[in-house]
Request: fold
Amino acid sequence: MNRKRVIKKLKDSMNIYPDDSLFSRIEGRLPESPGSPILVKGGKGMKGKSHKKWITATAVAACAVLILSIGIFSGAIDAITKRADVTVVIDVNPSVEISVNKRDKITYAAALNADGEAVLGDMQLEGAHISVAVNALIGSMLTNGYITSHNNSVLISVSGKDAQRATALEESIMNTVSMRIKENNISGSLMGQVIAGDGAGNAEGVSKGKMALVEAIVSSNASANLNKEDLYKLSITELAILMDERNISADIHKDGEVSKASLIGRDEAIRAALENAALNREDVQRLECELDADDGRIVYEVEFDYGSKEYEYDLNAYTGEIVYSVTKDNKNDDRPSADVITGAEAKNAAFAHLGVKESDVKDLDVELEDNGAYYDVDFEYGAREYEYRIDAATGEVVNVRVEEDDNGSVSNTPATPSASIITREDARAIAIGNARVDASLVKEFRIELDNDDGVFVYEIEFKAGAREYEYEINAVTGKIIDVDVDIDD
Reply:
C-alpha cells in the first residue's frame, strides 16, 4: 500500500475525530517517496515481496486497530461532554429552559410557552457558552419589551444532581442577568433558586421553576386565600409584588427591589371602594385592604363594615376598575346601625370640644374601635397631636390625649367642662415657677388631668438638671396640692 492510499484511509477513518494533530503525527511517519511501501526493518525468515506484503498488511491492521480505538475513545468523550448535568430555567413571563453540560456549554434550549417562543426565535444556542446564551436570551426579552422598568423581575431556577455546582451556576447567571439589565438602565429585581429534580413543568406551560416559587408562596403563613392556579397565571414581577406586599419569605436569593410603579396603591383602592359605596372612611369599621390574585390578575381586595352591612370589593390593581363587589348582612355586627353615630358626627364632636374647624386641622383619621363602642379621632392642630375618644352611642368625649411636637410632652384629659379649669399652660407655668428652674432646662415634661374623688387635678412630672419633679395642682384654683423632688439617678 503506498503513502497516498494510507493517508486517504486514515483521513476517511478519522473524520469523526475533531483534532487533526493525531493524524498529522501519523502522516509524518510515512515515507515521503510516492508509491513507496511501508517497510519495517528486521524480521527473520521473511524475504522479498512476501516480506514486504506481510509488513504492509501488519502496518495497515495496526493503524486500523489504532483508529478504531481512537474512534471509540473519542465517541465516549463526545458523549460525556454533550451530556447535560444542569438544567436552567429563566422566567419573566416568557419561560425558556436550557440544558448545560460540565463544560458550561448549551446542549439543549426550548421555549416553555408562547412568549418563550417569541424570545427564542430562530436562535441556535446549542454549543454556546452559558454566559453567551443567557446574554442573548435576556437581550431578546429586553428588545421584545418583556423586561422593562415597570416589569423588572426575573426568576432564575437551577436544578442538578450536584447541588454545589447548581448553586455556583445560579449565582453566576444572576450576575450575568443583572449586568445585562443594567446596561439598559433598568434596576432589576432578580430571584434565584436551586430546585430539586429534573422534571418538566406542567401542561399549561408553567415551568418547574415557577411551580417551585408558587409552592413556596402558598406554603407560607401569609398565603391565606391564595391558590396555585391563580398564581400560575401571574408574571414573575406580579408574584414578586405579592410576596413583598404580604411579607412572604421563601428560600430564594434576592437582588434588587421589585417595581410597583404601575399599581394604583392601597389608598387609592380604598378611596375607590368607599366612593362606590357612597361612604366616608370615618364612617366604616373593620376596614381592610390587601393585594390578592384572581384569575390571572392582581387585585386589591377591600373589605369594611357599615352598620349591619359588610362590603367586599376587588379592584384591578393597575386601573382601579371594580371587577367584583358584594354587599351582605354582617353576621358579626351586634349593634343596630341606628345606635351608632357616624364618623362625621364623631369628628365634629372632637372639633367642638377643642373649639376648632376641620379646615384648621391636618392628618385627620377617624376609626370605629372596640366592636363599635368608641370612635378614635386623631388629628394635628398647631404643634400638637390630638387623640380623641368619642362614645359611639352618645357622641360624648370620653378622653383626650395630647402630644406636643416641640418637647414631646403628653397629656391625658378625661372629658370635663373646659371653662371650669385652668389651662395646661397655666398649670405648667405654676409648677416650673414653683421649682424655680429655667423653662429651657425642662425635659421629659408630662401633664395629665385626673379626677381625684371629684376634684380635678393636674398631675405633672418633669426633669430639670439633676432633679425629678412631681406636682399635683388643683385644676380649678391652680393651688399646688403636693410636691415631690428626687435626685435623678
